[in-house]
Amino acid sequence: MGIIIDKNTRAIVQGITGTQGTFHTKLMLEYGTKIVAGVTPGKGGTAIHGVQVYDTVEEAQGKHSANASIIFVPAPFAADAALEALENGIKTIVIITEHISIKDAVSVMTYAKQINATIIGPNTPGIITPGESKLGIMPAHIFKSGSIGIVSRSGTLTYEIAGGLTRKNLGQSTCLGLGGDPITGLNFIDALKMFEKDAQTKAVVLIGEIGGNLEELAAEYVAKEKHPKPVAAFIAGRSAPPGKRMGHAGAIVMGKAGTAESKIEAFRKAGIKVAEKPNDVVKLVSI
Amino acid sequence: MKLFEYEAKNILVKYGIPTPQGGLATSASQALEVATKLKPPFAVKAQVLVAGRGKAGGILFANSIPGVEKAAEKLLGTQIRGIPVNSVWIEERVQVKKELYFGITTDRFNQSYVAIASAVGGMEIEEIAQKSPEKVIKFLIDPQHGFHSFHARQIARKMGYSGNPLSELGRIFERLYCVGMDYDAELIEMNPLVETVNGRFVAADARMIIDDNALFRHQEYRKKLLEGEGELTQQEIEAIKNDLAYVKLDGNIGVIGNGAGLVMATLDTIRYYGGKPANFLDVGGGAPAEKVATALKIVLSDQKVKALFINILGGITRCDEVARGILEAKAKVGVTKPMVIRLVGTNEEEGKRILTEAGMHVLESMEEAAQRVVEISRHGGK
Description:
Chain A is built from nine helices and 14 strands. By secondary structure, chain A is α/β, with parallel strands linked by helices. Chain A folds into two domains: 10-120, NAD(P)-binding Rossmann-like Domain (Rossmann fold, 3-Layer(aba) Sandwich), CATH 3.40.50; 138-286, 3-Layer(aba) Sandwich (Rossmann fold). In chain A, β3 (47-48) and β4 form a beta hairpin. Helix content of chain B is 39%, strand content 25%. Chain B is elongated, with a radius of gyration of 25 Å. The relative contact order of chain B is 0.09. At the A-B interface, α4 and α5 of A face α9 of B.
C-alpha cells in the first residue's frame, strides 16, 4: 500500500546516462524498484546497469509501457523531458532536477492538469514507499515500512525526521517530497487526500517551510474537512529574514507573506500539533 | 534577481508603458546635467533595493536644477536601511490625481500567474489588502490562453474606469504582462501607477524580480548579478559562483549544512537554545571536499563569527568526503574558531574517525550539537 507508487510501478529514468541518473538508477534497482528503461537523447542503444537506453520516450514506451518516470535532466531541458513523458502516456512523473524556471514549471503543470497526471517536484528527493519501491534519491536505509505518511518540502529535513521516527520504531507508509520550488506538482492538500484514503497510513507528518501559503491552505483543509487521521507538523525558517531566499527557490518571505509564524499559527488553529524542533515530531506522533 | 527602479523603467519604456522622463546619475554634477534636460519639478530617487525606500528618506523632491544637485549630493554616498546609495534616478515629478496598483506574480496553489490590481496604490500590496481588501482585484491567468486585452479591460472596468482611460489602462496592463513573460519576472509591479491630473497614466515606480532560475535566458542580467551590480554582497556572489546558497544574518554562530530545509531548521534550533546564527549556508547535495572548503572560507569571512556549527546529514553526501573537506579547509584557511560538527549518514564511521583523529568533536544529534555551539559562542570556546 502507501500512495502513488508500489511494487508494481514500472518506471523509466530520463537522463539515465548522466552522473546522477546512473548512480541513482543503481540504487533504485538495488531497492527493488522496477526500472524498465532509460532515455537519453543521442545515447539510444546503450545500457546502464542492465537497463536498455533509448533516444526517445516514445520508443521506450513502445517496448516497455512504463507508468512512471523519474527525471534527472539538467534544468534548461527538464521541462521538455517532462512534457515528452506526459505526451507519451506516462501519468506519474518525479522531477528531481533543481533550478527549473517558473515559466517552464508552469507549462509542465498546465499540461499535467489537463490530462490528469501526477507531478512530484521539481527539486524533490522523490517518493519512497518503504519496502516496496523508491523513485528518488533518498538514502533508503533510514526508512522503514510502517504507518506514518510524511509529506515535505525539504529533502534532508525529511531524512532527519524520518530517521528519528525509524529509530523509535515508527515506520512510514510513504514519504513524499513535494519539492523546494515555488511551483510544484503535488501540494500538501493533495497528499492529505491520498493519505486519508490509504489504509496503511494511520498518521500524517507535514514538513513545511517559509514561502507561499500552501501550509496555510492545508491547515484550512484539515480543519474544514475534519481530516480523520492525526496530523503533526514542523515548519523550518523561523529565523529567516524577509526578502532573502533560503536555499530553495520557494523558501522566501515576501513582505509579510509566507512567514513561519503565519504557518505555525494556521496549523495550531486547525488543531495540528507543531514541533518546536525537528526531532520533537517523534513525540507528537507517538501519543 | 531584483532589478533597480531605473532598470525596470527602461524595460517598461521599451514596451510602450508611459514612465516619467528621467535619467540616471552617479554624481551630483551628473545629476545636474540630467536635470537640465527635464522639466521641473523633479524627483530624485535613491537606487537601492530596499522596501519602504520613500519612508526611509530615499526620495527627495526639488523645484529647481540646483535643488536636484543638492538632493543628489545628499543621497549619494549615504545609506538607506544599511544599503549604500551608488546612484540616483532623476525624473519629472508627476502630478498625482490618484495612485493605483497593478502587478503580476506567481500563484503557487494554482500553479500559474496572477494579476493583482487595486484602485488604491502607493503602499505595499499586502498593506492595501489589509486596509481595503474590497479594493484588491485578483485575476488568475490561464497560462495556456494568456492575458488578453479584454482581461485587462475587465480589470480596468472593475477599478471604476470607462471610456478612453479604460482603454489606456487596459493597454498598459496587457503590456506589463508581456514584459513579465518576456523577462521571466517572478514579480513585476507598477506601484504607484499614477493617474495624473491631466488624465494620463504613468508608472511612477516599478519593481521587478527576475526568476533566478531563468537567468540563463537573460545573460545580460546574469552578468550584472555576478559582477555585483545588484543587491548581493561579495560573499553571496562567491557562493553563487560555487553553487552554494549563502545568506548573511546578524549573529555570531557560523552555520554550514546540507539541504535548505535542514539548514533552516539548524538556525531555528540554535535560536531555540538562545544562540544567534551568523548565516545560512547550504552546501547542497554531493558536497565534495573543495566545496566544503569554499563554504568555510565564506562563512569565516564574517568577522563576527565566534564558533562554527557544521551539520551534515548524509543522503547522497558522503561523510568521509565532508570530513576530509573540513580538514582541508581548516588547513588552508587556518581555522582557529571552535567547531562543533554533527555528521551522520553515508560512511559515517569513516567520517567520524577522520575528524576524531584530527582532534575534533563529533556529535550525533542536532539538538546536542546546537546546545554545545550556543554554549561555546557565549563563553568564547573556553
